[in-house]
Each structure stands twice: as C-alpha cells, then as structure tokens.
Amino acid sequence: MTLWLVSPSSPTGNDRLIELAGIDLWMGLCTNRVFVYPSDLNTDQFKYALSRTLSLCPLVAGRFLLPENDHYFIKMSDHPIPVTYIENIELAAWPTELNVISDQHKNYLAPFIDEIQTQKLIYGSQEEPLLRLKLTCLKQSGEWILGVSWAHVLGDGGASSKFLNTLSHFYQNLDPVKPLPVFERRLWQEDEADQSLLPMMKYLTHAALSKDKYKLCSHWEDIYEQLNLSFSGKQLAKLRELAGGNNVTIQDSLSAYICLTLNTHCYLNDAQHCIRRIN
C-alpha cells in the first residue's frame, strides 16, 4: 500500500474561516462513492488534477473547528488530502453484481473506500481530513477503482458531485464547468425566519424517526431491480466522440447516453417521467 499526500497546487485558503449553517452540521455523516474505470489511470495526472481542484476548492483542503460557543467553522488551511493506492492481485475483475445501494448490515464496497473518521470530527480532532481518496488497481483485469469519502460538513451529495466533476475535467485537460465555486454560507438568524416558507421544507415538516427512515430505505430491493451496465474503454471513447469529443467529459457523455436511452425506450410520450435535466 502506498500513501500520497496531495496538496493544493497553490495555497488559496489562507486560513480563512467559513462559518457553517445548521444544515451542514451532520457531522456524523459522510458520502461514500465508488467509481470503476475499465482502463488504465495515470496516477501522476490524477494527483496533478486533484491538486488543481483543491486550489479551486480550498474548503475541501480545510479542517473542521469545533469551538465552545455553539458556532462551527471550517478553516481553509490548505492541508494535503490523503490518497491511498493499493494493488489487488486476488480479484479477477470488478464484480458487477454488487449492489449500488449497499446492504446496511454488510457493506461489500468497504475494502475500496478509505472512510472519513467522522467520530474524530465530532470530538473536535483537527487532524482528520474532510476528504479521503483510495485508488485500487485490479492487476488481473486492468480495471481501476476510485473510492471517495466526503465529510458532510463540506456539503451534500451535490457539492461532492461538483467537486468530482471538476476533478474529472482537470484530469481530461478540460476547463471546469462554470459557475466556479464560491465559499460563503447564508446563516439564518432566529428573528429572520419566515414561517410562511416552512411548508416547502418537507425534510423539516415531514421529519420521521431514524428507525422509520432506515426501515423505509431497507425495502428498496422489494421495489426496484438493479440493472448493471458494463462499458469498455473503447465504447466510452466512442460515446465521448459522438457527444462532442474533447468538449465534454466521458462521464457527461455516458450520463447523456443513459438519459437518451431511457427517454427513447422507457419514457416516450411520458412527460411526467421524461428526464429533462440531471445534476
């Protein structure tokens, strides 16, 4: 196993403090993702792309501060991000039958993720990074797996996707998609709360007990059937060529293909389910 510490290409955080809004304070949660690539990944190019992305997103290279006055901050301290690299000689190929939504009692994806230690954040440790990455090379198949663990205090899944999309653009020598990130938080004050907007916030008005939420989520297998799709490197390159060549990323061209396929064969003349926009 090899550990790389990747720093921002240029320090842009300069120890600035960003105060967090209440919705960011799900300190015990992190977003974990796994991406499988069918062909070789250039580690030097990946580290270079990551360093450029960190300069553009200094919040990610910061540390979570837990003061005693009920205010919470991220200090944009330009720390390096740990990237773990490991070679796997036992697995013949990526097992396509793995569930995208993992069984809550048995996480098969855990060996491919270097998970954020959220308990350290809760207890005020300033040593724990807010992003951890893990690269696994399957030597038998030549596939590469990127595991991502993203602390929720950085933002939700949308913020994580934006960061990874920017990383992908830099890796493919493309300019990042605008608008570029702005690191500000609009903090709600008690005397500013507009009660008339409360019915729109279903995550507050329709909140339920955690045990009810987990029970609902555990029934996904009874409602949905997982569909596994596998694309070769040559097929992905062809999709990118058809979608506009070097002007778009491989991931964007793949997403466009899947949406077009669903709209053409599943949602034709179905305005309610037709996919018009994805994030």
Automatic annotation (TrEMBL):
Keywords: Transferase. The keyword Ubl conjugation does not apply. Pfam families: Transferase (PF02458). It comes from the Eukaryota. The keyword Lipid biosynthesis does not apply. GO terms for molecular function: transferase activity. Coiled coil: none annotated. SUPFAM superfamilies: CoA-dependent acyltransferases. This is Uncharacterized protein. The lineage of its organism: Eukaryota, Metazoa, Spiralia, Gnathifera, Rotifera.
